[in-house]
Amino acid sequence: MTEHEFEQFMKQYEKLVFTVCYQLVRDYHEAQNLTQETFLSAYQHLDGYKGDNYKPWLIRIASNKAKDYLKSAYVRRVQYTLEEENAPEPVSLAPLPAALTEAKEGEQLAREAIEQLGEPYHQVCTLYFLGERSVEEIAKELDRPKKTVQTQLYRGKILLQQRLREEL
User: Fold this and answer.
1) 3-85 and 97-167 agree in CATH topology
2) Given CA atoms 91, 93, 97, 102 in this order, what sign does their dihedral have?
3) Spatial separation of the C-alpha atoms in residues 33 and 68, rounded to whole Å
4) Cα–Cα distance between 59 and 167 in angstroms, integer?
């Protein structure tokens, strides 16, 4: 391919290559740089390309260039620094007294609703919600199949939801 033919080639595909790069990096100037790198790489490897449709080949080169850019340590470091500078002041995560009171009241309601459940849901829900045990642990402890415990827990949750809605 002559220099003039390659210029025509670049003019034909430059918008496509730029769009691919911009869609991936979301930075106008970096997309321009990556577009130039894409055409430089295409020019260097033009002899090795065996095909007549350059469009998918160029898109692959452009997307690989953009992905390499995004993976680079420089980009991660710069993005981290910028995010750190623009980060809001940390907010205290300590709960407010009113929120603590509401949480305790909600916990008490849940305990009472669990206590009112009939068997086998009472035992399974007590172990799951109050004992904070996994389904596997409950199945071993109660000597029941895991699927049985899952079903009983599911049905117990439905009953609890109904009771808690009635209470509220």
Assistant:
1) no
2) positive
3) 13
4) 61
- From first to last of the 168 residues of the chain, give the pLDDT tens digit: 788 888 898 999 999 999 999 998 888 999 999 999 999 999 988 888 887 788 888 999 999 998 888 887 666 666 556 555 555 555 444 555 655 565 566 677 777 887 888 888 888 888 887 777 888 988 998 898 999 999 988 988 888 888 877 766
For the full predicted model, state whether its pTM sits above 0.90: no
In CATH terms, is domain 97-167 a member of 1.10.10.10?
Answer: yes
Q: For the domain 3-85, what is the CATH code?
A: 1.10.1740.10
User: 46: which 2 tokens?
Assistant: 């033009």
Q: Which of 163, 155, 107 is nearest to 132 (CA)?
A: 107
Domain ranges of the chain: 3-85, 97-167
